[in-house]
Design brief:
7 helices; about 0% strand
Length: about 170
């Protein structure tokens, strides 16, 4: 598939329309209302099960559409499907899921509804999204530091450790 300016414009238009539909769905479902979300999470108190219907409907829709779409040779606006290949459960996955759950439970927002809720101008949404972005920046700086060699380290020590010792 050859990329053209029209192709890029169509891709952006589809992404924008999809984002607006997703935002409207989150609003209509009540996912942008922290009280409704916290009511769903309060299974021992005044539990509100309505978001279970929202999540079940989303999972059902995804399951059906995924099976139909994946049969295509490629997406309409890309060269190939971008399907995650990793199946490893590591500390990053568990830690990220834990932080996600804690943020959802404490703030009443998850990332999508939090960003959509910014349109309301509410202080809670602003605090949630601000701290989410701050956490993402800190994680990026941390992983960049771990992934890059330390200053002044040219890798010689590691190379020396891997060389076999020859008896003379």
């Amino acid at each position: 598939m050859k990329r053209t300016p029209q192709h890029s414009l169509a891709r952006c238009a589809v992404a924008a329309i999809t984002g607006v539909i997703f935002a409207l769905g989150l609003g209509l479902a009540g996912m942008t209302q922290p009280g409704k979300v916290l009511g769903f999470l309060d299974v021992t108190g005044d539990w509100d099960p309505s978001l279970a219907c929202v999540m079940g409907g989303a999972a059902l829709t995804f399951g059906i559409c995924y099976r139909l779409i994946i049969k295509r040779p490629a997406p309409i606006f890309d060269m190939e499907f971008k399907i995650p290949q990793g199946k490893k459960i590591d500390w990053q996955l568990v830690g990220g899921a834990t932080l996600f759950g804690m943020g959802w439970g404490l703030g009443g927002f998850c990332p999508g509804p939090g960003v959509v809720s910014l349109a309301s101008g509410g202080k809670g949404a602003l605090i949630f999204v601000g701290t989410m972005l701050l956490g993402m920046a800190i994680f990026k700086l941390w992983t960049d530091r771990i992934d890059s060699p330390s200053a002044g380290d040219d890798g010689q020590e590691e190379a020396q450790e891997q060389e076999p010792i020859q008896a003379g």
